[in-house]
Amino acid sequence: MANRTVKDAKSIRGTNPQYLVEKIIRSRIYDCKYWKEECFALTAELLVDKAMELRYVGGVHGGFIYPTPFLCLVLKMLQIQPEKDIVVEFIKNEEFKYVRALGAFYMRLTGTSVDCYKYLEPLYNDNRKLRRQNRQGQFEIVHMDEFIDELLREERLCDVILPRIQKRHILEENNELEPKVSALDDDLDEDMPSDDEIIDTEAKENKREKERRDKDRRRDRSRDRDRRDKDRKRERSRSRDRDRRREREKEREREKEREKEREKEREREREKERDRLREREREREKDRRERDRHEGDRRRGGRY
C-alpha cells in the first residue's frame, strides 16, 4: 500500500506517474533504508522539509544500484503528485538550491513542453554550484545552469529516462512561446558602438594590423639574417672540425710510418746484435779447439 500511487493521481503521458522511473530502479528505491524511514507517509507539506535537507543530486550508484535521497524524493513526488503551484514554488525557491533542482527535475518529468521551457529556462541565470553523485559513488561539481541545460537537452539524467519534449523553435513558430531573450542582450546593446566609433575602431585596427605586419616582417628578416649567420658560423665550425680531423688523421698516419721505421731500426739492431753474438761464439769455439789441439800435442809429447 505504501508504494502505490495516490488514488486521485492523474496519468502522466498515458501511464502511472511512478512508471516514469524504470522498474529495477523503483524496486531498489522501495527496498532502500531512506525510502522506508524518511519517505513513509510523506505529504506535499512534509516533502518540503525533506527537500531542504538534501545535500546533493544524483541517480543510483554502486554495483547493487543504491538510490540517492534525491531520486527517492523524485519518486515520492511522482507517487503523491503534488499540485502544480507547489512545484512552481519549489522552482522559484532561491534560498535552497537543491529544492529548486528537485522541483525542476519533477517539472521536466511531468510538465508539458511549454511548461518546461517556461519555468526552467529562467534558471539559466542561476550559476550556483551543485554536488552530484555519479555512478561510481564519487561526487562532482556541476552548476545549476548546467543541470537545467541537461534537463532540456539530454535524454537521460540521474538514471531516469526523460520524456521527449518539442523543440523550442517549433513552439515559437506555433506562437506558443515567445522568442528566447538572453539576459546578456541588454548588456550587449548598451556596449554596442556607433557607426563612427566602428569606423574609427576599424581604422585604428587596420593601422595596428599594418604596424603588426611590418613589425613581423622586420622580425622575420632579422630572424633570417640571424639564421643565415648561424648557418655560416655552423658551416665554418664544421669545416674547421673537418680540417682538424684530417690533420689528426695525417698525423696518425705519419706516426704510424715513424713507428714502422723505428721498428725496422730496432730489428736491424737486433740482427746486428745476433751477428755479433754468433761471431763471439765462433771465436770462442775456435779458441776452444785451439786449446784442445795444444793440449793433445802436449800430452802426446809427454808420453814419448
The radius of gyration computed from the alpha-carbon positions, rounded to a whole number of angstroms, is 52 Å
Shape: elongated
Strand order of the largest sheet: 1-4-5
Residues in helix, %: 55-70%
Task: Describe what you observe in this structure.
The protein starts with 22 loop residues before the first helix and ends with a helix. The longest helix is centred in the C-terminal third of the chain and has 109 residues, at 195-303. Strands 1-4-5 form a three-stranded mixed beta sheet. 65% of the residues lie in helices and 7% in strands. Helix 4 packs across helix 6 and helix 6 runs parallel beside helix 8 (144-153). With 304 residues, the chain is mainly alpha-helical. It has helices spanning 23-31, 33-38, 44-52, 69-80, 84-92, 97-110, 113-120, 144-153, 168-173, 185-191, 195-303; strands spanning 57-58, 60-61, 66-67, 129-133, 139-143, 156-157, 160-161.
Question: Could you give a quick summary of the protein structure above?
Answer:
It is built from 11 helices and 7 strands. The protein has helices at residues 23-31, 33-38, 44-52, 69-80, 84-92, 97-110, 113-120, 144-153, 168-173, 185-191, 195-303, and strands at 57-58, 60-61, 66-67, 129-133, 139-143, 156-157, 160-161. Helix 3 packs antiparallel against helix 4 (69-80) and helix 4 packs across helix 6 (97-110).
